[in-house]
Write a structure and sequence with these properties.
alpha/beta, 11 strands
């Protein structure tokens, strides 16, 4: 492994367990990595959630301005600058689009027999302004439930295919192990990769992307055509090992 000139980390099921904050070890690793290269956290999560859970712990870092946050599947971007978080762009969905997406999700779920009689825990559909996220088992489901409700991915895959057909004018992607993320067309994680490449004047091929959903239809897989280097992980423990490897090669350059 060589030291990339910038690193992207997916959040849920990559840098952290789904819907949880990264571990203190992972955050410490990100902080150390900022000493050497710009780091981006790119996620379907909202900026508000990320800030509430863990971003404040990185604000005092001497190189905090090298940290870029791409929220709601890169529909929004933020950078810590001069002691505050600056929003760099916001590609929000309008009210009519959000209403159309919600109706299409409800219609699709009701039409699929395989999704019936599956218990859910907490909210299923979350309106994030720039993204609509749907998780059939609910945002409060335990990790055991999230991991076991659709072990082969066939149920969520069928919902994804149905929504792609009914919402061709939007971006429909699978995130983590339970979620379907819907944004404006061509607004996905590849947009964040290409945007940062231009902002930092770093060729995409000299950056690295670490994620758990690099499989077809996964919300990380969209970055592959950009030419960015990618590393697929099974979860936060493997990501922490990659951070350690990056620190070794980047500190030696």
């Amino acid at each position: 492994m060589q030291c990339p000139r910038a690193v992207f980390f997916d959040l849920d099921d990559t840098l952290a367990e789904s819907f949880h904050a990264p571990s203190p070890q992972a955050l410490a690793g990100v902080g150390k990595l900022l000493t050497y290269v710009p780091v981006s956290i790119i996620s379907g999560a909202t900026f508000l959630r990320m800030h509430k859970q863990f971003l404040s712990t990185l604000e005092s870092h001497p190189h905090a301005n090298r940290l870029y946050i791409f929220a709601t599947s890169a529909a929004q971007a933020y950078q810590f600058s001069s002691g505050t978080w600056e929003q760099l762009y916001d590609l929000a969905l309008d009210e009519e689009a959000r209403a159309r997406i919600k109706k299409a999700v409800i219609d699709a779920v009701n039409s699929l027999e395989v999704l019936r009689d599956i218990p859910h825990y907490g909210e299923q559909m979350v309106d994030k302004g720039s993204q609509i996220a749907y998780t059939h088992v609910g945002v409060d489901a335990s990790k055991a439930v999230k991991d076991s409700w659709d072990t082969d991915g066939s149920k969520r895959g069928l919902l994804w295919e149905t929504l792609k057909q009914s919402l061709p004018e939007f971006e429909v992607l699978m995130g983590g192990v339970t979620t379907i993320d819907i944004t404006r067309k061509d607004v996905n994680k590849s947009h964040g990769v290409e945007w940062l490449s231009k902002r930092l004047s770093i060729p995409v091929q000299e950056m690295l992307y670490v994620g758990d959903a690099l499989y077809p239809g996964g919300n990380d897989a969209v970055v592959i055509p950009t030419g960015i280097q990618t590393l697929s992980v099974s979860g936060p423990a493997e990501t922490e090992k990659i951070i350690d490897e990056l620190l070794t090669v980047c500190s030696a350059q």
